[in-house]
């Protein structure tokens, strides 16, 4: 496990790093420009409020939520939201590396999953598993890969025994391929999509901010970038800014148009 600024011992499997450790401060740095659509903002805010009222929830014997699944197309803010949650909860984030967990040897994948969950049970953190479908695939489609079917069973047990010291967050682009029993274990589900007009405007404004530009450029950019993911918008705007910088001129419509063409985002 790569770690940044603490000396905590983190699990290793045969010398293979299983994840990366981010302090809450490092998480904060990553999410300076996060745009969360209203629905997801509400979900995250409520989640954080509840975790801040643990005692009261215990009194009422109402379990607190701590298993979140985020799903939707690439570049829409799933990973960024995990960092945001860790920052808001002032917990470290453990970003699990799939290649550090999945192993071709019999039983090894399950044993790695157990180790990482045991770690998270013992040390409060946000345990984040990206590309979750890679290990939580429906068991039917996994007949030929018995190892993965076993891993799903282990994962189910780990989720059931997780306790409430830590938060488990999973993200996927392929929610339909997740095992239904795994799906049922999540108390919080968040759907992500490409930005609507208002989120696009908010994001473009954050990106262009005080960069010198020709009049009306903000509106044109919002229109031109319609259908793009947040990640595409970021790349296209950065490309356009680079063009403006090397030409020593304000950001222009033609920089955006050309950058869009060069970047060629897949719009669906
Ligand atoms: N909602 C958002 N607000 C601000 N920036 C965003 C948002 N979504 C994506 N971005 C930009 O795109 C980059 C990629 O975002 P992120 O990694 O969160 O996407 P993702 O949904 O996890 O994608 P994938 O499914 O490919 O893992 C971010 O680093 C950020 O620059
Ligand atoms: Mg991601």
From TrEMBL:
Pfam families associated with the record: AAA
Keyword Nucleotide-binding part of the UniProt annotation: yes
Keyword Nucleotide-binding set for record: yes
Record GO terms (molecular function): ATP binding; ATP hydrolysis activity
Domain of life of the organism encoding this protein: Bacteria
Keywords, in A-Z order: ATP-binding, Nucleotide-binding
Ranges where the AAA+ ATPase domain occurs: 64-196
Family label: Belongs to the AAA ATPase family.
The name this protein goes by in its record: ATPase
């Amino acid at each position: 496990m790569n770690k940044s600024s603490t000396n905590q011992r983190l699990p290793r499997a045969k010398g293979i790093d299983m994840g990366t450790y981010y302090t809450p401060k490092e998480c904060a740095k990553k999410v300076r420009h996060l745009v969360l659509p209203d629905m997801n903002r509400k979900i995250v805010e409520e989640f954080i409020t509840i975790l801040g009222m643990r005692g009261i929830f215990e009194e009422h014997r109402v379990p607190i939520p701590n298993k979140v699944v985020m799903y939707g197309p690439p570049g829409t803010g799933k990973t960024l939201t995990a960092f945001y949650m860790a920052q808001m909860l002032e917990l470290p984030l453990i970003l699990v590396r799939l290649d550090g967990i999945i192993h071709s040897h019999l039983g090894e994948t399950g044993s790695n999953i157990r180790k990482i969950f045991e770690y998270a049970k013992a040390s409060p953190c946000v345990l984040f598993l990206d590309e979750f479908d890679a290990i939580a695939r429906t068991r039917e489609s996994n007949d030929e890969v018995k190892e993965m079917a076993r891993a799903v069973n282990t994962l189910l047990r780990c989720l059931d025994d997780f306790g409430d010291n830590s938060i488990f967050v999973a993200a996927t682009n392929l929610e339909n391929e997740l095992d239904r029993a795994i799906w049922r274990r999540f108390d919080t589900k968040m759907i992500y999509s490409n930005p609507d007009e208002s989120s696009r405007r908010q994001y473009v404004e954050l990106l262009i901010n005080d960069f010198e530009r020709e009049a009306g450029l903000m509106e044109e950019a919002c229109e031109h970038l319609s259908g793009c993911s947040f990640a595409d918008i970021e790349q296209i705007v950065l490309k356009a800014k680079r063009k403006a910088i090397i030409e020593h001129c304000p950001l222009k419509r033609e920089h955006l148009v050309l950058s869009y063409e060069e970047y060629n985002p897949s719009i669906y």
